[in-house]
Amino acid sequence: MKNLLREGERLDDLMRSGRVIIQNEKEFCFSMDSVLIAHFPKFKKNARVLDLGTGTGVIPLLIADEVKEICAVELNSRAADLARRNVELNGLTEKIFVMEGDYRKHRELFKAESFDLAIANPPYTPIKNGEANKISGIARARHEFTATLEDVVTAARYVLKFHGVFCMIHSASRLCEIVAALHRHQMEMKRLRMIQPKIGRNANLIMLEAVVGANAGNLKILPPLIVHNEDNSYTEEIYRIYNE
Fold it and tell me: What is the predicted pLDDT for the residue at 7?
């Protein structure tokens, strides 16, 4: 497999169904956030899933066994190329389709209300907050250069069927904005889980499930997910998620 690698690339084990992923060290490599949100939805075997901003395709690779088919859209041409190669490398071309495109132009790319579930690990940080990383791939992934919170929620609502499900991981500090954006687009949050770096620390991330056309209320707030023990080792749940 090493012969498949190009300059600056490495091959990582996903520890799932024998799958591996090629990543470019000059671009944004996937983080724990993608792994966590890939394990959060309640998947249905016949579901059509859209991954909004797939990067190198890690989320589709992790969820491929759980659903019928996945469309993975990515704006960055280099990341989209890596995603396609990763799908081919893992023998999943019949289940995962990688589309290079801008999901802000969702009306041009997709048929309305054609997916059962949309999943996203979008940029968390508004451009005005802090200086963006100078490496373009990392900057796009972490800061709202090419897609804002409003953009990802708008796209999710457009592609989802009535009672379709939207799952997203995002910054806990933007929860109020997220709830407002979902409500504007006829989606209501039904499950919420806070992610804490350690016990006793404030949550820095959230994972949510919202449903198109659902009534407000009946929100299920799950126990927090703790990432690290006091000695900075990963908690048992984190190890379990990675080893599932």
Answer: 87
Structure tokens at 116: 């059962």
Cβ atoms within 10 A of the Cβ of 218, count?
A: 9
The SS3 assignment for 209 reads strand
pTM equals 0.91
Which residues 6+ apart lie within 8 Å of 180 measured at CB? none
User: Per DSSP, what are the bridge partners of residue 207?
Assistant: 169, 193
What whole-number distance in Å separates Cα of residue 91 and Cα of residue 71? 15
Name residue, tokens 């939805």: 41
pLDDT in tens, 178-216: 999 999 999 999 999 999 999 999 999 999 999 999 999
- The rounded distance, in Å, linking the Cα atoms of 156 and 160 is 6
Closest C-alpha to 178, from 194, 162, 159: 194
* Alpha-carbon separation of residue 30 from 64, 85, 121, 134, 176 (angstroms): 17, 16, 10, 18, 26
Find out whether 225 and 36 touch, Cβ atoms under 8 Å. yes
CA–CA separation, 238 and 106 (whole Å) = 34
Check: CB of residue 165 under 8 Å from CB of residue 211.
Answer: yes
Q: Which residue stretches of the chain have pLDDT < 50?
A: 135, 144
Rounded to a whole number of angstroms, the CA Rg of the chain reads 17
Contact residues for 190 (Cβ-Cβ < 8 A; gap 6+) = 209, 210, 211, 214, 218, 219, 220
